[in-house]
């Protein structure tokens, strides 16, 4: 909320757009060459090249090297929590795999869910968890991972499952009073939290209803041939793991901790340690196998659990379809995503330091001659910042500061702005591969943005819904005028 937006009177709009145009062109070519492997490292370097182009523009406009580095440092500092969470998510996934938590979730999920209801059920489950926790990230890192495993075992496209997970998770994230973005948006716009949530429901509820309808239709049309061998899959899981309902105590504990407002890092650490303890109790053979030991001693137990936390772990089963599901990269598996976030923050920091973000936002603001134009400019600015600044918080803070006065001058209540910031800034961040949210979610779920993009229905439908309401003048609240 205290983020300052750097202005530079000497920078014109075309100079501000040069790094964006160059970055988009380079990323497009890089993805053309590398395809899905672009996120393995080449996109990260392209972001650094984009930052170099922005720096050159800055030097020509009298922005010092020190100023650019300072803004990059501020950006990187703001991602400290996200990076630590990513590392702990990798650790948690490792111990939850070897303890049998994830396989147990998949086992019972296969017995209860079927492909016809799986996708809409995934949306609802993730929405409920995200409202309770206030975090789409935590939802993805816990139930999201399990649902991806269940969906894969049912033979459903992982892109579809990830899209359903994210649709539900971001609905809950938007509507939860515990969410940081839900608190940030009204603070930037100048309204209060619960007015913001009530007003946001007008666009958010129709959007999630449409999302559910689409997933229900998809559920009736998807090919279910992958489920014919469910019994064989269940037997394979039983052969490889000691399946027990007691293992649900681990994820339930983590969810309860977060509901009670325990810091996510603390909750994830406790979840990781509990996973290690339960691995020793329920899956000692697996721990020994990972440690390459014949007996379970203190040293082999330590080594097996530590390997699961830090490096690649895979558990072979008699069913080839399950082998990809029962693997984890541990903390090492998250390093590629962390690398991407760092490079994205370098580009976003330099763009802010040279005044490019402020100049682009100002140009969009000048295009807003009507009420609809003002809403459209806000949406466009949020989307542009998610692409250029690579951070959902900047996509809320920058337009919030830039447009608050304009909404007031148009006689519009501040909740119009706060709702639009969430409808276009928060939810679309996950659709950009190099954005912190896109990088995080694709890394945690193990599904690339390109795979889940078309199925993240709630996320890309939300900005269209807010524009539709503006165009039809539905629930556009006016400022109250006091009589003198």
Mean pLDDT over the full residue set: 84
* Strand content bin: under 5%
Q: Which consecutive residue ranges, at least 5 long each, have pLDDT under 50?
A: none
Cα-to-Cα separation, first versus last residue: 34 Å
- Give the strand tally: 2
Biggest β-sheet: strands ordered side by side in the sheet: 1-2
Describe the structure.
The chain folds into 2 domains: 13-80 and 334-445 and 464-471, no CATH class; 93-326, no CATH class. The chain has a two-stranded antiparallel sheet. The longest helix is centred in the middle third of the chain and has 29 residues, at 193-221. Helix 3 packs across helix 17, helix 6 packs antiparallel against helix 7 and helix 10 (193-221) runs parallel beside helix 21. It has helices at residues 13-34, 42-60, 65-78, 80-98, 101-112, 115-133, 136-153, 158-175, 180-189, 193-221, 230-240, 249-259, 264-282, 284-290, 298-310, 320-323, 335-353, 356-366, 371-388, 394-409, 414-426, 436-445, 449-452, 457-471, and strands spanning 313-314, 327-328. It is an all-alpha fold. The chain is built from 24 helices and 2 strands.
Structure summarized in a few sentences:
Helix 1 packs antiparallel against helix 2, helix 7 runs parallel beside helix 22 and helix 18 (356-366) runs antiparallel to helix 19 (371-388). The protein has helices at residues 13-34, 42-60, 65-78, 80-98, 101-112, 115-133, 136-153, 158-175, 180-189, 193-221, 230-240, 249-259, 264-282, 284-290, 298-310, 320-323, 335-353, 356-366, 371-388, 394-409, 414-426, 436-445, 449-452, 457-471; strands at residues 313-314, 327-328. The chain is 73% helix and 1% strand.
